[in-house]
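User: Design a sequence. Structure:
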């Protein structure tokens, strides 16, 4: 079968041994993803002058105060503060539900099986940070330009920085407890059907759009319809994660619950619904503005922060104000959130060291070392679910020869890659699942596939690889193309890969491509002979969703399949895996899938990353997640405590912060 889902070709879940609980109640784990960056929009954002001024000094926070009493999920209590005046725009007509999308009201009478109370899951790490404090400004140091805001049809990390604080999902991960079950968001409770072929989400009745209009069930139903069909948008990030949903059986029940049915039993039914990208948007807003509104307009969400008026998407300083009518009483803690998009790594570090920003997600270990040395900056690090992969283009001879691809993998010295590109902060790993994962292969299993374990004698193994290539008639006189994103970090990592290829006798030249064009190229399949790109499991430690992100035929991130046939063996195994519910059965088949994919050598990890976050001492409430795309993108759980502004004594500190190693 030829892949037909290719207009333009990114999760995170810490699955513990308790994964089996998802079949009974709710899937364990959290949803987020490495901050992978897919195809850019076909509609260029409106030009805007770039922010040149340095970040301003931090605002003072309010005096310490205990958090406001939290409303029960789904309560009809009035918001604690009066509604803000609607923005100066034509207010969308409240959405209504088509009769065909309504299920009988009697279906909602039983109520949800799972409806966690706020107090049961909202547990800030006060032992480490002290009690939450209200007020102040939190300034985020982010690594890319804030180009556009379309997280639905052209998802990028920058787009998620706009939408994460301003929009909501039905359920979400717990920002204080990586790996714990999902918690309520727009839904106060849920029921997973006994046959694992459906789920119903019971909606809160106090959710308001930022213009003061109530959110309706139809808004949520329609959002999922667009995510599945891609109607009116470029390329849906969520489409491949919702293939199990029966589009014709998404129904609103009595306007208070949203019911889904699946095409087959689903072993991890809640993972997709808790994915950060599954955000609900306003139906009338989208019908009026189309995908251009997704790119350019951040004014109408339901999230903890509102986009400050008078701004334009595309400027690399964006301000967000506390939503006084947020549906969770007492949140967020800070009054203002400011996000700076700073591409230059030296400028990122300079802004942080000058205390012009407060919080920085770190991937450059030169920065990391400077922050660790600093007496006031706290730093936390842990292994992530992201790897740096070499993709081999099977469309191009002789790389369509699996023995050639095997030889290339055998010639890579992964330990050198960790030393050279990550300053030693990384892991070789075993196979295609993250180091330490419950789904990871044993050493015996992984080493049964040549090239997947670091040998004691890399030179001897490299010589064996060259012999294989000679046997297969590899053309060593030809110069091959290595496609690289024009980002300093990506170029540095690709330079290591280029050197490893050179040691095999393979001559390459860089095709260095600007970020937007690079994303389009890799998803269209017209990249060179080799490509350096992010790999791993997109933050989702699950064999179906994690491995499927890069290896299922219809995925936006399987860079092999545009223009090529789907692989029937792997597709059949993924389909079977999606319907298994028992942990041991899933692990066994997950191992089989890994071993099969490893033997194809379509791509392989050069190394698995570690990533860090650094922040000044007045920043409180942060818990580190094993993914760069964790709950920190919403920031509702973090606060600023000015009483700690002058705290010192953190020089050399690399542990202690919740969530770290």
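Assistant: Done.
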């Amino acid at each position: 079968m030829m892949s037909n889902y290719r207009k333009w070709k990114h999760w995170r879940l810490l699955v513990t041994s308790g994964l089996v609980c998802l079949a009974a109640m709710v899937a364990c784990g959290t949803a987020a993803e490495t901050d992978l960056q897919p195809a850019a929009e076909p509609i260029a954002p409106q030009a805007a002058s770039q922010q040149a001024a340095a970040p301003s000094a931090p605002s003072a926070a309010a005096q310490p105060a205990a958090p406001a009493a939290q409303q029960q999920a789904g309560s009809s209590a009035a918001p604690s503060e009066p509604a803000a005046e609607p923005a100066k725009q034509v207010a969308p007509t409240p959405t209504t539900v088509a009769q065909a999308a309504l299920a009988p009201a009697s279906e909602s009478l039983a109520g949800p099986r799972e409806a966690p109370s706020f107090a049961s899951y909202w547990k800030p790490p006060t032992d480490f940070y002290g009690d939450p404090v209200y007020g102040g400004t939190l300034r985020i140091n982010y690594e890319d330009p804030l180009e556009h805001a379309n997280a639905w049809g052209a998802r990028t990390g920058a787009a998620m920085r706009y939408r994460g604080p301003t929009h909501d999902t039905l359920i979400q991960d717990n920002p204080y407890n990586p790996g714990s079950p999902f918690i309520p968001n727009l839904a106060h409770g849920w029921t997973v059907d006994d046959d694992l072929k459906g789920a119903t989400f019971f909606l809160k009745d106090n959710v308001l759009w930022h213009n003061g209009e109530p959110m309706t069930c139809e808004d949520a139903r329609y959002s999922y319809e667009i995510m599945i069909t891609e109607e009116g948008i470029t390329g849906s990030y969520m489409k491949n994660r919702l293939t199990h949903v029966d589009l014709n059986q998404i129904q609103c029940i009595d306007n208070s619950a949203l019911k889904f049915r699946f095409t087959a039993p689903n072993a991890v039914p809640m993972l997709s619904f808790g994915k950060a990208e599954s955000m609900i948007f306003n139906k009338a807003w989208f019908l009026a503005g189309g995908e251009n509104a997704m790119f350019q307009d951040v004014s109408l969400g339901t999230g903890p922060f509102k986009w400050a008026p008078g701004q334009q998407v595309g400027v690399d300083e964006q301000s967000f104000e506390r939503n006084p009518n947020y549906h969770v009483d007492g949140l967020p803690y800070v009054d203002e959130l400011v996000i700076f998009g700073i591409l230059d790594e030296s400028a990122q570090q300079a802004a942080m060291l000058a205390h012009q920003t407060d919080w920085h997600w770190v991937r450059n270990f030169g920065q990391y070392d400077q922050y660790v040395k600093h007496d006031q900056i706290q730093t936390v690090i842990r292994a992530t679910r992201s790897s740096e992969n070499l993709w081999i283009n099977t469309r191009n001879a002789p790389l369509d020869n699996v023995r050639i691809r095997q030889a290339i993998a055998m010639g890579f010295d992964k330990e050198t890659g960790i030393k050279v590109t990550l300053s030693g902060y990384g892991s070789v790993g075993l196979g295609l699942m993250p180091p330490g994962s419950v789904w990871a292969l044993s050493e015996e299993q992984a080493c049964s596939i040549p090239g997947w374990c670091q040998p004691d004698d890399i030179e001897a193994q490299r010589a064996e690889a060259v012999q294989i290539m000679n046997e297969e008639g590899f053309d060593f006189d030809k110069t091959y193309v290595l496609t690289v994103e024009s980002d300093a970090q990506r170029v540095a990592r690709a330079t290591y890969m280029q050197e490893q290829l050179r040691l095999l006798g393979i001559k390459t030249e860089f095709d260095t491509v600007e970020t937007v064009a690079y994303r389009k190229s890799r998803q269209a399949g017209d990249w060179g002979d080799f490509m350096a790109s992010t790999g791993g499991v997109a933050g989702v430690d699950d064999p179906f969703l994690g491995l499927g992100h890069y290896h299922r035929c219809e995925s936006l991130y399987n860079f092999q399949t545009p223009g090529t046939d789907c692989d029937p063996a792997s597709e059949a195994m993924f389909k079977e895996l999606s319907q298994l519910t028992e942990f041991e059965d899933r692990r066994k088949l997950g191992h089989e899938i890994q071993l099969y994919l490893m033997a194809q050598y379509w791509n392989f990890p050069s190394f698995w990353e570690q990533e860090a976050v650094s922040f000044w001492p007045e920043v409180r409430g942060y818990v580190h997640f094993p993914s760069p795309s964790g709950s920190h993108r919403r920031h509702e759980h973090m606060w600023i405590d000015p009483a700690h502004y002058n705290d010192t004594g953190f020089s050399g500190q690399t542990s202690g912060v919740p969530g770290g190693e």
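The chain has two domains: 17-41+101-344+611-644, 385-610. The chain has 16 helices and 20 strands.
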